[in-house]
Write a structure and sequence with these properties.
With 170 residues, this protein is α+β, with helices and mostly antiparallel strands. It folds into two domains: 91 residues, Probable tRNA modification gtpase trme, domain 1 (Gyrase A, domain 2), CATH 3.30.1360.120; 63 residues. 16% of the residues lie in helices and 38% in strands. The protein contains three helices and eleven strands, in the order βββαβββββαβββα. Strands 1-2-8-11-10-9 form a six-stranded antiparallel β-sheet. Strands 4-5-6-3-7 form a five-stranded antiparallel β-sheet, covered by helices on one side. The longest helix is centred in the C-terminal third of the chain and has 13 residues. The protein is globular and about 55 Å long. The termini are far apart.
Amino acid sequence: MSEALVRTDPVSGLDFVSEGVRLSLAGPMARFSLRARQPEVLEQLLGFKLPRQIGAIQAGAACLGPDEWLLRAPAGTKLSLGSGLPVAITEVSERSVCLIVEGPRAAEVLAAGCPLDLDRFTAGRATRTVFETVEIVLLRTGDNRFEVEVWRSFAPWFRTALETAAGQLR
């Protein structure tokens, strides 16, 4: 029976377009939570440099803390889990979905529920924050483009909240 089960996205894949903003669902991707007190060990295992400044994004990895990164990679990417090394690599691909908020009023829509000063949150930055009371990881990937990682269980509410905020723009 379980072979008949199919995982579906918790929100619509259809774009929502309003005055100066578009909301869309990002395609499938692999996600990994990376932890290491010695980033060099993790870099050697991964084969690329990790950003060291909290909030920086490099090679698909966002530095979320002094010893924590979120790596987003193409769907199906597999990583060595670093058995025996002083690192923690956990695949979290199914934990969240990514909603894209883009357009000249994208920051305004996100500001409806996010306490960050998004005018000072420049492109190429990432952070863990909240939208109202829901934890999100916010990545600014362009001047008018944000990618928001939100846990699957909150995704329907989050998308509705974004659509509501976008619909109220004047």
